[in-house]
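Let us work through a complete example step by step.
Step 1: write down the sequence.
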Amino acid sequence: MSTPRRTPQTPDALRAELVGHARRLVEREGAAALTMRRLADEAGCAVGLPYKAFADRRELVVELVQAEFSGLRGDLDELAGRAGTGTVSGNLGWFAERLLGSPSVALAQEVLADDSLPKAMRSRVEDAGLGPAAFERGFARYLAAEKRAGRVDPGVDEDAFGFLLAGALHNLVVSGEPYPRPSGGRLQDFLTAVADRLRPAT
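Step 2: predict the structure and record it as tokens.
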């Protein structure tokens, strides 16, 4: 069966569309499923079209991870905006689920195993304003907002807890099989235990 003719797109629009298809493919089937041929199948296009947008799969991976980190930057802003609503543990769990469910996490081990990819990713991530300290600052900003809402004790050092929360999640992102990730329910239990310690003293 012939591939349907596609409406011409700008290079940026084509790249963005293919990244979206790549994201859905990784979410559904895992990082190993992401090949240029499978991407073409997912997008309903000719096998050669992804190669017009990306030099190879590695360039596609870098673009996908950068797009995910840009989305996570927005999620950090949303986390701060959730202060005073829901529960502290629920808000922390929402962000943890968003981060750990991201295709960028599924691809983390591959990125770390390829000597050339971490350097390319570091440059892209820093360009997106999400350097190593961004998550620490995001958690600290959220906890400071919860202080103002009266749901975190005024004596809590939000920078210290931001550092610890970001470090714990980073460990789950990069550790892989040697340190299996807790189930979603167990992770929420851990975050609830943290949130309980942050409550204002009665």
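Step 3: interpret the result. The first helix runs from residue 11 to 29.
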